[in-house]
UniProtKB/TrEMBL annotation:
InterPro entries in the record: TPR-like_helical_dom_sf
Taxonomic lineage of the native organism: Bacteria, Bacillati, Actinomycetota, Actinomycetes, Kitasatosporales
Taxonomic source organism: Streptomyces marianii
Domain of life: Bacteria
Pfam families, sorted: TPR_12
Protein name stated in the entry: Tetratricopeptide repeat protein
Amino acid sequence: MLRPRRGAAGTVRRGAGGAARGALEALGALHGALEAVGGRLPYAEAVAHEALGSVLGDTGRTGRAVASFEEALRLARQVENRTCQVDSLVGLANVHPREDRHDRAAARLEAAREVAQGTDVSLIGATLAAAEAERRLGRHARAREDTERALGLAAAGSPLDLPRLYHLGATVCLDTEDAAGAARYRRLALRLARRSGQAREHARVLITLGHARRELGGEYSARATWGRAHSAPAALGAPERHETAALLG
C-alpha cells in the first residue's frame, strides 16, 4: 500500500506496516483520534480517515478501507486539502483492484493527477504513487512513463526520492522481462540508497537486484545478493526479512 509521510498519522501508519499487533494498535489510535475530533475539525478528520483507510487496506479490510478513503476525500474536498485528496484517490486506486474494479482504479489515478497538477502538492509523490499503482494494475507502459517523469522531477529538486524511483523502475523492467534494464536501475538505486543512508530501501533494492541477476542466469550471484539483504540490520523483523528467508530457503 502506498503511504504518504506526514505528521502523527504517518507515524502511526509506518508502525502499522508490519505485524498484525501493530496494525490493531494503529486502528485503535486512529479510531480514538476520530472520536476525539468529533466532527469539529474536518481538516484533521480527513487526514485521520485517509490514514485509517491505509491501515484497513493493509490488513485486508477492503470494504472498510474504501469507505474511509471516500470519507477522507469528501472532507478533504470540503476543506480544500489537496494533499489529502491526492493521497485518498491513490489509496482508492490501490484497493479497487481487490474488488475487480480496475477501470475505477484507473479513473482514480487520473483524478489524482488532475488534483496535483498546478498546485503546491508534490508532483513527485503523486507521480510516484501513480506509477506504483499503474504497475499493480498491469499497465506497465504507463507505469514506466510515470516513473521516468518522476525521476526527472526528483533529479531537479528531490534527490532523496531517487533510490525509491530507481527501485520502481527496476521492478517495472522485471515485469516486462527486461532483466538488463532492471539490473541497471538497481545498481543506481543501490548506490544512492547507500550514500543517503536509506538502509531499508537499500535492503529492498538488494532483493530486487537478486531477482534481476537470477533472470540473467546468475543463480549464485542472486543468492549472494539476497543473503546481503537478509543480513542487513534494517531488514530485521521487517517483511523483507521473511521474503529473503523464503528465497534463501
